[in-house]
């Protein structure tokens, strides 16, 4: 089910599996570097986890799903399953999800030691060159899993630091930072005719089980927007009473907005009379040209209705993304926030990969013929196929290598702490 | 958007609109007949409404969406919008949904008077024969709306009476009732090849906006079961630890089952050591041959997984239902409970219409090109297209005329108080 | 523990026990007369019960605690314990308190029949004249219990009718009603020196176990106000920011006020720009001279602090009430709402009995040497001696016979649906 | 209101205020020493605070209530009021109480620096010898406040570490620890006749405002137990169905016990078939001779009822404590857990001070004539006089100097995380 040979928007050619393993693991640790042990314990809501927990859980994953079956292998800390298992019922009981912030022990130093121990064992084994295909696939799964947690580290610590009234900063803005005031390029539409499309992973590199099987879908004619919706456009929605007009909202969305008193995207604040946005580099004025993000799907949907458009289906998005490059900001850019679209790109939609995940109207369900893998690892994706919506594309917190056109991210429609934005679609005129 | 000429599984040929109006309205009132004014005030949870409220709300609907625009028309009780508007934000404020059980006033007699007043006005107008097409469509919408509330009257009062420790009965079992012990017919499968199917309302009779536009869908090859899952089959699932094995459940479903301590379908009780089921005719032993019902979609999904199958998509269901008749128990049967499948029917699936609604795996979303109607009536369906799943078919509480192959019922996956059951599907072998 | 010979503010001299029984029971039924069967099913919150439930529960009480031990006695409806037992764990399981509004069955007619059946049995037995003292005490307990439920019938149905946006009326204002605009008499203070007082029931008539044992208490010097706080005085508190100034409030009170967004007493509404009050006779303008009521103890305490005073202790109140008559409005007055104090009374505090219950600062705990009765009837009072505050005096909904100086009413500090008001006290100047 | 000259169970004679200040502050820091920065961020429930927060808050208290009014004084970190103000509305807005665990910043190092800065300022000022009496009283208040937080540091970190499935240890048991198996001394009773007692602070040393004014109370005759209830006695209560018998419980207590599924004191666990207790030194077998602690008042009350006794009033306790020494384990003992009573002490109750706080049946309210201090410091005690019960005595986590016979501790009846135990009282036989 899981392909052994990795691929993504960039290739890893010339790299051994061990080199790749080391590079991905190091990238995780670099994300934790600006953070104190205390910062790395923050858990500001049940959906978010402490950074330290991410560091440990990803290591536990390699131990449990890759190393555990090797001859002579015994887990260095069997009791860690109690605290670093995320949700695998097949593996056993565990700490409640909303209690991870209480894990002052093991200490960050101990967690780092645990990571090193797992890395040493992985290295000794990957160096041996006699890796069977099924285990190689699990290594690749573990690396993609780790990349997902790299993104979560950034979104979770952003949420945690923002909960502090002192509003601490993750990384300060570089001294030379200079925010231009260029407006966003005008919005245009790309049109697609009705046709039968192949949807799902191509089979030439790694993909998750939820991207499979590749199958045929009849996609009706549609149009899709040339770029993400901007903060400026969203400000117009707010100014036009967007958060006060029930006719613009889905019933559940209106209830959620009223219950939590939403008046703007998460991290926006107009306390001082002008809209500020809290970013991983601190608070600053909202730039009208930058993509709006940290929206729930309910808000994305209401905005689209207000704009006379709609959210795309995930199939439309996948069709439209064919042959598009990764021109948006990804994790490697160090931007840590979505960037305005360039006005210099040619025809066809831009920002398809990067900047902000794009909410679709598609429920997250299995493709025809979908079957999860056998064993506990089969809990990875399948059991979440209820109550969630698909997001496509990738964000400024996603590693470049992690993405591909068939990639399906998914969150409940009320979730706002991810870098989630909007691309409009509409029926042909 | 709404077709003026009604159709369903049976035709109404030879009937005038007024005759049809009177027949549908009378059917509603007959459902209330066994119930005291106190019974008709019961509201046992926010999802259910008092019978009296259903009687009044359906009348308010005709006043508000049909009569209100007529020359000289003034609502007989303008203040009733405060208490009998269900969810139309475009019409104004209203009592909270979970407070409808506090409407001791207007009294049942006053509500009946209100119904009569609306009926008189409707009759005077429908008798006039100069009804424009758009208003005729709204009459038809009002009648279909009323039929939906007929079903809700039965499901809501069942839930309300069951909340009483004295377990009162809606209608006693007829004296001659004789429950046979014939086993259910063996399960078999019908196979369908991949093809492009037309999905949605045909346009030759009434349909709701959510069945439109009719459009083409590529439906992969599939198999569908010959009848509904039986109580006996479900007992085997329970006996095999179905409610104790997380690997059988979606993550949200497992959480819901644990939170509410589900151990059997709603209305089942094994307090005495043998499974009893509470029905509108009182409690009695579970009949292994009858369809299991009052399941959440989570339970339906877990059962299907346990059985090595899956739930159908709504498209598969619609394809399979073509040319199938209404051989299941419908409201007109007076059965008030799903009935065992007959063992004498020929090839092809039975019980497609009636007995119990059939959970699908399809999220309730708009069809390509869907647009709700203008004005408050546009809130009828569209704003609920989030977080709900489609059910197909119909139940023992649905009027025969109300159903058709394209009909889309929808409820959240946790809902259990409807007559909701399971038909299995699977990928081709 | 419970005295057989009844007393109160009026004597029942010349009445046989049977005559008294009939009079009290009839008074309960008269309270229900203006209400339809539907009205009598209303339950607008867990603390309130349907009127029909009160009718049945009080009858069940006589059956369970008086008749049940008689030779040959069998309860007419043994299953009613499931639905009409209030909180006696010693008697067995029962419907959840907040589900009593779901008891459409037994019908009101059946409940009336049940009352008649109990009344017939009681009459047959009370007529026999061979009543042992312990059972006579239980009859008296049952009658006092019934009188408590008479008050609850009024407060509960008021809450239930008020929940209806149509704001129905319990009893219309008499045609001749003419609200005078006389101002309330000026507030003065009565002074008491430190002394040792006897507190608790005198033993010459009926009293509840929580008024016993009579015991000595050292009561420091204090002053007490001549009348209840008026609506006009409370309006000044509101106008002075009373609901916006945390320094006036107890910590729990401030939290409760913020959580429920209290801005005025329960049943007050300034939607139209002028304060209206909802009463059992409908909504009308607030009369500045009438006592403020439907306050929580938190509000009473905050008002007292704002006024430079404090709430009395229950001992101070009992001392001050000696030799005061029942000059306030009681149930027999038919006023159904607290009335302005008369300006014509002589020295000494007025309104000590009637109009509105008076919050004290005293926690509801047992007196020294308190022991509840043996058996389930011992659950009557004792188990509630935690988390509640004592109120003294009586209200416009209390029967005259029910009250005495030692009477202890009790509710949680957040409760507002009783006729609860404020009398100020202060330390000597 | 607050006396300038400190006293307690031990005298501080010969110490300057500065020496005392330094000693108390140092003691706080020693409590934090075994804990990592991550441990010091733990907040396992809203009632508990992180150790780091305690370190900072107590310093903020000196800055705000002592230093702030001095000429030229400016707070070193004005923004710390946002995060280290506990509940003083008069000082301004602040972080929600249940979010203190999200304060990864300021770091522990920064908080230590803040403490040093405050200490330097206090030292410079206290060294000057021209301290006016009102400020000296505030210094003493600040030191007593700090001692209260010393106890909270231990109870809060115990709760936080216990939330970790790995059950880390605060301080390991000393190598030589040897738990004897001596049984507890037999229980006996001391008798007191009815008399008028002086209750409240004597005025010869520091006391909190809630111990004042000293006043006369008539205390009826009573008997009080010679020692705390032991774990062995509590085990008998459990074995006798104590947690399953509603007749033993107050109504609110039974509801709380059922809602949280209490089956034993907090920190007790019988998972392995034998009762274990989690202590600050790790988990070990329950010693039947040691005092039971970590009980709610509801459990203490139920136990007393089961034992045919009752909880003492706070006045009884204060009368009984006269002339009793501090023979129980206090913070200075390093025991970190209540210790068995010695069998060698003479007549009169032992363990009155130390080992475990003793729940009383007395509501926490102001004494006659009580007035809080002017300004924000007046919020210290008074606004909590609602819904809480008084505990008397002191515990193994209380500094010896902090206690006196008139000391009133207070918590809601449901609180279990303090070192709260039971001493029985009863009416004379």
Distinctive features:
homotetramer, 429 residues, alpha+beta, Four Helix Bundle (Hemerythrin (Met), subunit A), paralog of FGE (formylglycine-generating enzyme), 2 domains, four-stranded mixed β-sheet, three-stranded antiparallel β-sheet, 9 helices, 28% helix, globular, disordered N terminus
Q: What does this protein structure show overall?
A:
Four copies of one chain form a homotetramer. Chain A is α+β, with helices and mostly antiparallel strands and 429 residues long. The first copy, chain A, has two domains: 17-162, Four Helix Bundle (Hemerythrin (Met), subunit A) (Up-down Bundle); 189-426, paralog of FGE (formylglycine-generating enzyme) (Alpha-Beta Complex), CATH 3.90.1580.10. Chain A contains nine helices and twelve strands. A four-stranded mixed β-sheet of chain A has the order 10-9-8-11. In chain A, a hairpin with a 6-residue loop joins strand 5 (268-269) and strand 6 (276-279). The radius of gyration of chain A is 21 Å and the shape is globular. The two termini of chain A are 41 Å apart. At the A-D interface, loops of A face loops of D.
CATH homology superfamily name of the largest domain in chain A: paralog of FGE (formylglycine-generating enzyme)
Return the CATH architecture of the largest domain in chain A: Alpha-Beta Complex
Instruction: Estimate the strand proportion of chain A.
Output: 5-15%
Unreliable stretches of chain A:
1-9
Structural class of chain A: alpha+beta
N to C succession of SSEs of chain A: HHHHHEEEEHHEEEHHEEEEE
Please give the alpha-carbon distance between the first and last residues of chain A.
41 Å
Overall 3D geometry of chain A?
globular
The strand order across the widest sheet of chain A is 10-9-8-11
What oligomerization state is this entry in?
A: homotetramer
Q: Biggest sheet of chain A, open or closed, and with what strands and sense? A: 4 strands, mixed
Total count of domains of chain A: 2
The mean pLDDT of chain A is 93
Strand runs of chain A, count: 12
Helix content of chain A: 25-40%
Q: Tell me, what is the CATH class of the largest domain in chain A? A: Alpha Beta
């Amino acid at each position: 089910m899981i392909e052994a040979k990795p691929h993504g928007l960039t290739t890893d050619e010339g790299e051994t599996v061990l080199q790749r393993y080391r590079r991905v693991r190091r990238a995780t640790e670099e994300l934790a570097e600006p953070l104190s042990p205390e910062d790395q314990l923050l858990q500001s809501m049940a959906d978010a986890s402490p950074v330290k927990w991410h560091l440990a859980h990803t290591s536990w994953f390699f131990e449990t799903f890759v190393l555990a079956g090797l001859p002579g292998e015994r887990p260095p800390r069997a009791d860690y399953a109690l605290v670093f298992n995320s949700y695998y019922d097949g593996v056993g009981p565990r700490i409640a999800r909303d209690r991870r912030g209480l894990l002052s022990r093991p200490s960050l130093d101990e967690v780092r030691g645990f990571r090193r121990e797992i890395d040493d064992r992985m290295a000794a084994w990957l160096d041996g060159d006699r890796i069977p295909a099924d285990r190689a696939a699990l290594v690749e799964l573990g690396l993609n899993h780790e990349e997902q947690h790299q993104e979560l580290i950034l979104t979770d610590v952003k949420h945690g630091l923002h909960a502090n009234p002192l509003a601490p900063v993750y990384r300060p803005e570089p001294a030379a930072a200079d925010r231009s005031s260029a407006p966003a390029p005008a919005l245009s539409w790309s049109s697609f005719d009705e046709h039968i499309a192949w949807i799902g992973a191509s089979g030439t590199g790694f993909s998750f089980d939820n991207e499979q099987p590749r199958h045929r879908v009849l996609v009706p004619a549609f149009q899709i927007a040339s770029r993400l919706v901007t903060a400026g456009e969203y400000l117009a929605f707010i100014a036009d009473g967007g958060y006060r007009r029930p006719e613009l909202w889905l019933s559940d969305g209106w209830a959620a907005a009223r219950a939590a008193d939403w008046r703007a995207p998460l991290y926006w604040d107009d306390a001082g009379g002008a809209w500020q946005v809290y970013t991983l580099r601190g608070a600053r004025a909202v730039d009208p040209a930058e993509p709006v993000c940290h929206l729930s799907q309910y808000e994305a949907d209401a905005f689209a209705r207000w704009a006379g458009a709609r959210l795309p289906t995930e199939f439309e998005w996948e069709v439209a993304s064919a042959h598009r490059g990764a021109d948006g900001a990804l994790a490697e850019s160090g931007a840590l926030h979505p960037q305005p679209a360039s006005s210099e790109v040619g025809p066809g939609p831009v920002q398809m990969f990067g900047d902000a995940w794009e909410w679709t109207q598609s429920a997250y369900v299995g493709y025809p013929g979908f079957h999860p893998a056998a064993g506990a690892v089969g809990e990875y994706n399948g059991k979440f196929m209820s109550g969630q919506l698909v997001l496509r594309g990738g964000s400024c917190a996603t590693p470049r290598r992690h993405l591909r056109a068939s990639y399906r991210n998914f969150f409940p429609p009320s979730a706002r702490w991810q870098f989630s934005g909007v691309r409009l679609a509409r029926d042909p005129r």
